[in-house]
Amino acid sequence: MSRISLEFEHIVRAQAPELPLPGEGNTWERFEALSSWAAKDLSLGRLAEGHVDALAILAEAGLEVADPRATYGVWAARSGSAVTMARREDDGWRISGQKAFCSGSALIDRALVTAESADGYRLFDIAVSDQVTRALPDSWVAVGMADSQSETLEFGGPLVPVDREVGAPGFYLERPGFWFGGVGVAACWYGGAVGLVEHLVKTLDPTSTDLVLAALGQAVAHVQGMRHVLHDAAGEIDADPADMQGAAQQRALVVRHAVHHAASEVLALVAAAGGARPLCHDREQAQRAADLYVYLAQHHGPQDAALLGRLALDGGAWN
S-S: 28 plus which of 63, 151, 222, 234, CB 3.0-4.6 Å? Predict the structure, then answer.
């Protein structure tokens, strides 16, 4: 087994079962765990985030995990070129088609998979070995986040029905936890930035110039700012776990925007402080930078900003 798969298995067995669910009163502990895994390795953080998010989704649906020993992921990407369909047959639901960005494609046992159906957007709990017919060749050739194994997968064929539905049509997107999970992803972005800055601090020459120290200082300020934003968000989630105030969506969009901007600045500042040498000669730091760049690229920045603008114009609180 690879180092990543071994560390992922350790998290699943030893740490994930004890992790607080979002809104249970200790969401900051959850975000700290996500960020610490990501600071160690962003691909590891992505896999761990998928597993614990799946456990939270099942709990929100009032379901137990199908197998307590299983490693889980959440495969919910939507794209015009890779569509996943679900249809109800006499013996149960069957899924077919393709799904892009299936992190842990060759590592996890089970996945929560979204699919389009005649009665709406549905979520299913599947055994990967029963439902995946193949991974599309060269569908994950990334250098950044390479170890997340986020391939495009194909479903269907003469296989067994899916194990079970998770919630009603629309459940995946309409629950408060969807937005809590979005903040959890931002905690992973923050962790990736922490890892970059920690490594920079360890390797910088103590006699560095003021310009180098200024870049480092700005990076540290951005890291601390992200921490405060996430800490405040965790407290707000715990104060309103059912989203009775209807603030979860706006909060998640604001936090993700703020953390994405700060983490992007950290990428540039670490390069300014360290120069090209660590990004070319230090494999660990080069991988951290490539991983964070790719992970941040999943952010739908302009679309989310436009939605925030619409919420503000429609009378949503914004200050």
Answer: 234
